[in-house]
Specification:
One of its GO terms (cellular component) is mitochondrion. This is DUF1279 domain-containing protein. Pfam families: FAM210A-B_dom. There is one protein chain. By secondary structure, this protein is an all-alpha fold. The protein is 84% helix and 0% strand. The chain is built from eight helices and no strands. Helix 3 crosses helix 4 and helix 4 crosses helix 7.
Length: 134
Amino acid sequence: MDISALNAAEPLKKTDTDPSAENKKLNKSQQLKQIFKEYGAVGVSFHVGISLVSLGIFYLAVSSGVDMSAVLFRLGFSEASLQSRMAAGTSTFVLAYAVHKLFAPVRISITVVAVPFLVRYCRKVNGTEKATER
């Protein structure tokens, strides 16, 4: 048996069982589903909360007269993408919702990163409280 073939196959085994490598292969919606599956109500509550805050912030920005097309263009969104999603003359809420939807990958990334830390922190605090009660 060829030793170089064994060495070449070894890294494949490590990445197949490495959860971080598996997480990188998933798209954003699959990562979010995995967080919901692993952390349940905490993941869902956090994501819904951050979504409501996001929508509220964008609604305030649009209703305050901020030119969202200019802001999004500066952030790197293409002109064609902006024009197709934000038609002239749309209502404040519809425009805020369209911008909110454009930022879905950001919200999902925040949820995917923050929820495991939040759950770990809550478990640590809960474990500490139980230890002091005894």
